[in-house]
Amino acid sequence: MSSFDRRASDIRAFDETKSGVKGLVDAGVATVPLFFHHHVEEAEEAANTSAFSIPVVDLCGARDRAVRDVGRASETYGFFQAVNHGIPVGVLEEMREGARRFYEQEDAEAKKGYYTRDWSRKVQYNSNFDLYSAPAANWRDTLFVVMAPEPPRPEDLPIACRDITIEYSRQVQRLGRVLLGLLSEALGLEANRLEEMGCAEGVAHLLHYYPPCPQPHLTLGVSKHSDSSFLTVLLQDHIGGLQVLHQNKWVDVSPLPGALVINIGDLLQLISNDKLKSVEHRVLANKADEARISVASFFTTHFSPCSRLYGPLEELVSEENPPVYRHTTVKDYVQHYHTKGLDGRSALDHFKL
């Protein structure tokens, strides 16, 4: 058997267990399988970190200051940590615990019932959405739940995190509308401009589980990538590992109690004509003795049929600042993003004029 055939066979066998990376750890694996190995230079980059830190923005103050701070952070870093965002700490803690309950439930068969690679399903559990196409797999599992514009029936959500996912989604959608209003004003637009364009209509939550890794220098939790969304709201725990690429240096996004990490997605960079920055980021493989939990909430509309075209806003282009991108539907953009996989290249390049 050739090395290519053996790799394909190993990936298929791993996928067919429906147990994800957690299943490998539970089985006592001491070495990371070859299809999880990343290039040596990617592992070496872990030491190439910067002393910078991403901005912290207080959302509960004067609106003009919040607009200024959100705009400045989004244009420079593409990331910021939001404090005083209005979501109770108890809701954040319960959301993390709900994710943990799903992955660590004793009834493994109940969890396997959600394992699928059928993108038409609103509730999907699997390991690595691009498992069969990525250059290397990542050391994490994911529960993917579409909650807007049409949420699943409550009974279709895993009971381990059902109630809190519904409540957390309600709270995050409210916060998303607030953030889009601030970003609209930061771009010099009316406060409701981005929301009226449908940027807040669709929301999906990715409940990530990063088990401890026996050889963290060989793999990553998430490969370098930017997000395909308009906007992403991230809830992370105390363990850390998220890094943002800034001025060709990796910046650690250190956990801040009670804060949410906000980042610009590719689609907002596209419609802002590169004014707002969708920045590459990654997650290191988990070196801790316990699993890392995070919940990423993507604002995007590719979950429902929509023929609306998105391109650089006419208010933001001129002879001196011509459009950088062609128009596209969200569905076409995300389809290209998923087909490409997390290969280290920006999906935006495909849509440049």
Automatic annotation (TrEMBL):
A molecular function (GO) term: metal ion binding
Pfam families recorded: 2OG-FeII_Oxy, DIOX_N
Record's keyword terms, sorted: Iron, Metal-binding, Oxidoreductase
PROSITE patterns according to UniProt: FE2OG_OXY (PS51471)
Gene3D superfamilies: B-lactam Antibiotic, Isopenicillin N Synthase, Chain
Source organism, top-level taxon: Eukaryota
Keyword Ion transport recorded: no
UniProt keyword annotation of Amino-acid biosynthesis present: no
Annotated ranges, domain Fe2OG dioxygenase: 199-301
Assigned protein family: Belongs to the iron/ascorbate-dependent oxidoreductase family.
Protein name per its UniProtKB record: 1-aminocyclopropane-1-carboxylate oxidase-like protein 1-like
Organism: Iris pallida (Sweet iris)
